[in-house]
Design goal:
heterodimer, A: Glutaredoxin, Rossmann fold, Ubiquitin-like (UB roll), five-stranded mixed sheet, 21 helices, about 15% strand, B: about 160 residues, alpha+beta, Glutaredoxin, 2 domains, 7 helices, elongated
């Protein structure tokens, strides 16, 4: 029997994976050929999607990107000389893009079926939970602290400190909340993980719940990810049926259960306090901190809020030990980070590597430069609130501190690449427009500064008067300062990053010289 | 509109089922929209009463979130991604093409009720930009030709 694998990932499907799977099934039936087509998660090598894989003595062989018209010739090749097919990629795990990665979180990506508990367990699933139950809460918190894990949502706060705070916050009702409101352009690691390996997130949340003493968890998923919502709902039901959720979790004697909550198209709900308001059924208005959510979070009770990738990092830390995990990375950025290559990039996809490789290795090495073949102009790192980094700064290591030092941030690890046709003045204007549309309106710099900023950029671009241009540039930089230091949360505070970096590195797009922009 | 009140039994079922859930308002609004396509203004008092909220609180939530509609949707909803990654692959030109082909603005609905346009900021398909979502299905690596064909299919479907 011919065993084939095609991803059921929503983006693989968006480029035709379902049609390819159907065509393979039909063509095999026509040929009276016995095939078993499994729908797995995606490897994250998106430029090769739809990626068809086939079992062989050399491991899984890959073919891609496959379209429906390729199917008859592919089946011919699989029956004879697979390596001779024009789309043949050889053994998938030897593709350099994949082979050189350090996949801890995405170890199962492209290999297992998302909703198969057997597949999950056969590839190391629930080993972390078993270790956590054996260790007990205090030692689990110590292990998370010791691993050096920092919040992967953007702020990079040490996870273990949050865990300790929530654990020590008395004995009453507590919550674990997963922030799965991945709204940043250029990021898709959360989506891939929730669609492709939902039990990993569930396992991470169970470990967190048991360790901090919470019996209820919420996963807040953005509505733009319907496949992730459906998959998580099903996975939670399967996990509950198997005894991993419920009144006695995996023999621990402790209760924990999970519920998916669906966002409603508000970007600001990715900010943790706005997200808590949203789960409470309110408008997503940012709260002032303190009080910290760890002490007064959801419904006013102690709440551990983490991004998807942070929680998904926990099982491997428990299964293999804090020391194993912290051996990856550099400085204070420990472990691995799933970077996401997007935008105008030849080889877009997911690259999980230890912190410390350079942006150039990522964009030029893995990414292969621009998809258009035109000169690379800039990369926006960390989503719409991240800085535009020019190629002259591409040798900066991907490390939280190194990026902060150059007025940028790693954020959620998304990298959007642009070629020389993208105008940075319009991207600066777009950042301010986006902030104006998505601001919750609570604080003045963000609510009003964003609109005033758009007007300033418009005047700056429109004027031909040198003095006026100079004045507007000064005003824009001043406004960026106000946004950065005067806003209540990162939405307004970091909108300054793409604007100020565009102005600093690409003054010509604003009609300025470098000297004018620097003054 | 009196027609809106025809939906009341469905809405009362949803309220009876979900009103005691902690933070019930968003799940309830989603459930109503799934069942009847939008959240009629005429049922806001019903929701407010069931949850012991003010009308303003319920309306405030409905208007805050982009997803909630207060009028029936068109037969097809096309959401073109306008975020940075798709912009770097020509999303603005695709948006202009859509506006021209349908003679609508970015948030417009065609007069025959066949198609609504909505901008969206990221569908998570950034490695295969540009992308759009049409009636819940994501299409990535869009080309101008593919976009035109998708729109034409919506219009033909509406004509028959």
């Amino acid at each position: 029997m011919l065993k084939l694998y095609i991803p059921c990932d929503s983006v693989a499907r968006a480029v035709g994976a379902d049609q390819v799977a159907d065509a393979l099934q039909r063509e095999a039936e026509r040929r009276q050929l016995a095939v078993d087509i499994q729908r797995t998660s995606s490897r994250g090598l998106y430029w090769l999607e739809p990626l068809l894989e086939c079992d062989s003595v050399h491991g899984r062989l890959g073919f891609g990107p496959v379209c429906v018209e390729d199917v008859p010739a592919l089946l011919d090749a699989l029956a004879g000389e697979p390596a001779g097919h024009v789309l043949a990629l050889g053994p998938v795990e030897q593709i350099p893009y994949l082979q050189t990665q350090q996949r801890l979180l995405f170890a199962r990506a492209g290999i297992t079926r998302p909703l198969s508990l057997d597949d999950y367990r056969a590839h190391g699933g629930f080993a972390g939970l078993a270790a956590a139950v054996a260790l007990g809460g205090a030692d689990v918190v110590a292990a998370v602290l010791d691993s050096g894990l920092r919040g992967r949502g953007g702020a990079a706060f040490p996870a273990g400190i949050k865990w300790r705070t929530v654990r020590d916050a008395g004995a009453g009702q507590k919550y674990v909340v997963c922030n799965a409101d991945e709204g940043d352009s250029g990021t898709f690691a959360d989506r891939m993980l929730m669609e492709g390996d939902p039990f990993l997130l569930i396992e991470g949340m169970i470990i967190a719940g048991l360790a901090v003493g919470a019996d209820k968890g919420y996963i807040y998923v953005r509505s733009e990810y319907p496949d992730a919502i459906r998959g998580l709902d099903q996975a939670i039901a399967i996990a509950r049926e198997a005894g991993y959720l419920g009144r006695d979790v995996a023999g621990s004697g402790q209760a924990f259960d999970l519920e998916v909550r669906v966002g409603a198209g508000a970007y600001i709900c990715g900010e943790e306090t706005a997200l808590l308001e949203s789960i409470e059924g309110k408008r997503g208005i940012v709260r002032a901190k303190p009080p910290l959510p760890a002490l007064q979070g959801l419904f006013g009770l102690p709440t551990l809020v983490h991004n998807v990738l942070t929680l998904a990092s926990v099982p491997v830390i428990l299964a293999k030990g804090a020391a194993f995990y912290r051996d990856f990375g550099m400085g204070r950025s420990l472990g691995t980070m799933p970077f996401q290559l997007a935008g105008n990039i030849r080889h877009g996809g997911l690259v999980e590597r230890a912190f410390g490789l350079t942006l150039r290795e990522l964009v030029e090495g893995y990414g292969g430069g621009t998809a258009s073949g035109r000169p690379l102009k800039a990369a926006q790192v960390g989503g719409p609130l991240g800085a535009w980094v020019p190629p002259s700064h591409f040798d900066t290591p991907l490390d939280y501190e190194a990026f902060a030092a150059m007025g940028a941030m790693l954020g959620h690890g998304g990298v959007v690449v642009a070629d020389d046709t993208l105008n940075m003045a319009s991207m600066a204007r777009f950042a301010l427009q986006f902030c104006a549309e998505e601001s919750c309106g609570k604080c003045t710099p963000c609510r009003i500064g964003s609109t005033r900023g758009m007007e300033v950029v418009d005047r700056l671009i429109a004027t031909s008067d040198l003095t006026e241009r100079h004045d507007q540039a000064l005003l824009l930089r001043d406004l960026c300062d106000t946004l950065q230091y005067g806003s209540l949360c990162a939405m307004g505070g970091m909108t300054a990053y793409p604007v100020a970096s565009a102005l600093k590195y690409f003054p010509a797009d604003f009609g300025l010289t470098h000297t004018e922009a620097a003054q | 509109m009196p027609d809106d009140l025809l939906h009341l039994p469905v809405i009362r079922d949803i309220l009876a089922r979900d009103k005691d859930t902690p933070g019930a308002l968003l799940p309830i609004l989603h459930a109503i929209q799934r069942a009847i396509g939008y959240v009629p203004d005429a049922v806001v008092p019903e929701i407010a009463h069931a949850l012991n909220l003010s009308l303003a609180e319920v309306r405030g939530v409905i208007s805050f979130y982009h997803d909630f509609r207060t009028a029936p949707p068109a037969r097809h909803t096309l959401r073109l991604c306008r975020a940075e990654s798709c912009q770097s692959r020509g999303a603005e030109a695709l948006a202009a093409q859509l506006r021209e082909q349908l003679a609508l603005d970015d948030h417009g609905t065609s007069a025959d009720g066949a198609i609504s346009l909505r901008p969206v900021y990221c569908l998570g398909a950034c490695a295969c930009s540009p992308a759009l979502e049409l009636d819940g299905q994501v299409h990535a690596r869009l080309t101008p030709e593919r976009l035109r064909a998708l729109v034409n299919a919506c219009r033909e479907d509406a004509a028959c």
